[in-house]
């Protein structure tokens, strides 16, 4: 109880100090920075007639500026933009059965389209990537991917593609197209992928 009375007394004393400070300052006038500066009037005209005597500088006092005309270079007309090029034809992937590297019947038409495209570009090279699904060891799938790439290469050579245009590589199961664990996903990973370097 005694502690509460002391707290109230300290609070009351603090309140009285604040009130005294605030009431003592209220009688003073605050001065802004503009009001603090002394006013210094400038010379004023004694009459309206003297104000009218102010004469602007004459033309002789101003420096004369000469502007020389320069010929404007003619701008050639803009050339029309060339028509957009046709997008390059996509090379089709070829798919394989499980643990097989023989060319399936449905893959022959895709290989023929790829061969026709590359025949029209005799200086273009082709990389055939062999891929496998996730089943089996990495070493086994690297060999299987290489056999799939070799089979596609032989088929393209039989269609008339030059040997110098075709390069092969195998990624086995290291670069899957699909990462789900289902038969449909595994089928999309058993493929040879064709790309132009």
Explain how this protein is built:
This protein is α+β, with helices and mostly antiparallel strands and 197 residues long. The protein has a domain at 94-195: 60s Ribosomal Protein L30, Chain: A (2-Layer Sandwich). 39% of the residues lie in helices and 10% in strands. The chain has six helices and four strands, in the order αααβαβαβαβ. The protein has helices spanning 2-26, 33-36, 48-52, 105-119, 138-158, 183-189; strands spanning 94-95, 126-131, 166-172, 191-195. Strands 1-4-2-3 form a four-stranded mixed sheet. Helix 5 (138-158) links the parallel strand 2 and strand 3.
Indicate the topology.
Blueprint: H1 2-26, H2 33-36, H3 48-52, E1 94-95, H4 105-119, E2 126-131, H5 138-158, E3 166-172, H6 183-189, E4 191-195
Parallel strand pairs: 2-3
Antiparallel strand pairs: 1-4, 2-4
Query: Whole-number radius of gyration?
Result: 47 Å
The helix content, as a percent range, equals 25-40%
* Sequence stretches where pLDDT stays below 50 over 5 or more residues: none
Strand-residue proportion: 5-15%
**Strand arrangement in the largest pleated sheet:** 1-4-2-3
What is the count of DSSP helices, taking H or I runs of 4+ residues?
6
Largest sheet: 4 strands, mixed
Based on the model shown, name its key terms.
197 residues; alpha+beta; 60s Ribosomal Protein L30, Chain: A; 6 helices; 4 strands
């Amino acid at each position: 109880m005694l502690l509460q009375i002391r707290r109230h007394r300290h609070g009351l004393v603090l309140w009285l100090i604040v009130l005294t400070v605030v009431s003592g300052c209220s009688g003073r006038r605050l001065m802004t920075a503009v009001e603090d500066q002394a006013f210094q009037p400038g010379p004023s005209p004694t009459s309206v007639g003297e104000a009218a005597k102010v004469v602007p500088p004459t033309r002789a006092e101003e420096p004369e500026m000469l502007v020389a005309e320069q010929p404007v270079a003619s701008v050639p007309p803009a050339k029309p933009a060339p028509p957009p090029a046709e997008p390059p034809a996509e090379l089709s992937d070829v798919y394989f059965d499980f643990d097989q590297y023989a060319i399936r019947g449905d893959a022959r038409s895709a290989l023929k389209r790829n061969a026709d495209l590359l025949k029209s570009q005799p200086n273009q090279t082709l990389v055939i990537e062999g891929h496998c699904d996730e089943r089996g060891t990495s070493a086994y799938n690297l060999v299987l991917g290489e056999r799939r790439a070799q089979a596609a290469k032989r088929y393209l050579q039989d269609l008339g593609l030059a040997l110098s245009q075709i390069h092969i590589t195998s990624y086995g199961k290291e670069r899957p197209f699909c990462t789900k664990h289902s038969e449909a996903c595994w089928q999309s990973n058993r493929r040879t992928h064709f790309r132009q370097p």
